[in-house]
Amino acid sequence: MKRTAKLILIFSFVQSFALSMSAQYINKAVEIWPKALPGDGEKKESVWKERPNDGACFFDVSNPTLEAFTPDTAKSNGKAVVVCPGGAYAMLAYAKEGQEVARWLASLGYNAYVLAYRVPNNRQGALQDVQRAIRLVRGKGATEVGVIGFSAGASLSCRAATRWGEPAYAPNPKDKVDTLSCRPDFAILIYPAYLDEGPDHTLTPELTVTKNTPPMFVFGTEDDVKYSGPSTPVIMDAMHKAGAPIEVHYLTRGGHGYGMRFGAGLVWPSLAAQWLTTLSKKK
């Protein structure tokens, strides 16, 4: 009897692990660099792990992908958003800050694409990946392409919004995708990190904010003392000084890493949806 129970437990674990691994990608993911990576980096199989509070996560990505979530045809607005999960540039909270967000965007009528960018510790590679992703999505015929990111993914989204004039990789003139603009039409930053890496927590030097920086929506909380607490007012100040449009929601409490699941994570989606509607009316 004990042997049978042990076998059942083992089978149950193996079965749940197999289901978990097969369920990482909900939709078919496509490589964003079908040939060689910029710098001739080596492509390896990505490493997935489950985390209790985050669900499926990437802990090693060397072959970046885009996973598409499409709205009902009748609801589609023709626009698209590239979703950048966070994870300190060390991992990606792919389910919580990627797939769940993409589903929400699709419910609003947007074509949403979750970007699995290169990690760990490859900020330059991540910037190359998001610039390439924006171009790829634009090439699919989207009338507008925005970015949304969480924590380090918000840092990456902000870098995309402020460094679009500086190619992170040498575009291939024979590749039509690389001839398209990598400037996002708008950026949504949720509990952004790493925007205050200048002296005395000033704006991170690589972020070039001008009047041509695309509109931003930023959501952070004061008690998120390491990340959005200092980053939110810094980017708000830079955008105001440059005369670039920004909407900021800065709560007293909320913490970090809530995605869309609890607490402040139940607050920002409706505010962002309203901002997106207002943004569309202005154009």
What's the arrangement of secondary structure elements?
Elements: H1 2-22, E1 29-31, E2 47-51, E3 55-60, E4 65-69, E5 80-84, H2 94-107, E6 111-116, H3 123-139, E7 145-150, H4 152-162, E8 187-190, E9 216-221, H5 228-242, E10 246-251, H6 268-282
How is this structure best summarized?
This protein has 283 residues and is of the alpha/beta class. The chain has one domain (49-282): Rossmann fold (3-Layer(aba) Sandwich). The chain is built from six helices and ten strands; from the N terminus they run αβββββαβαβαββαβα.
Give a short account of the largest sheet.
8 strands, mixed
- Proper CATH architecture: 3-Layer(aba) Sandwich
Q: Tell me the β content.
A: 15-25%
Looking at CATH, which topology would you report? Rossmann fold
Would you list the SSEs in sequence order as H and E?
HEEEEEHEHEHEEHEH
Note the gap between the termini: 70 Å
Provide the number of structural domains: 1
CATH classification, class level = Alpha Beta
Give the averaged pLDDT, no decimals.
Answer: 90
Percent helix, as a range, is: 25-40%
Put simply, the count of helices is 6
Q: Which stretches are low in confidence, meaning pLDDT under 50 for 5 or more residues running?
A: 1-23
**How many strand units?**
10
Instruction: Let me know the CATH homologous superfamily.
Output: Alpha/Beta hydrolase fold, catalytic domain
Kindly name the structural category: alpha/beta
> What does the radius of gyration come to?
19 Å
The dominant shape is globular
Biggest sheet strand order reads 1-4-6-5-7-8-9-10
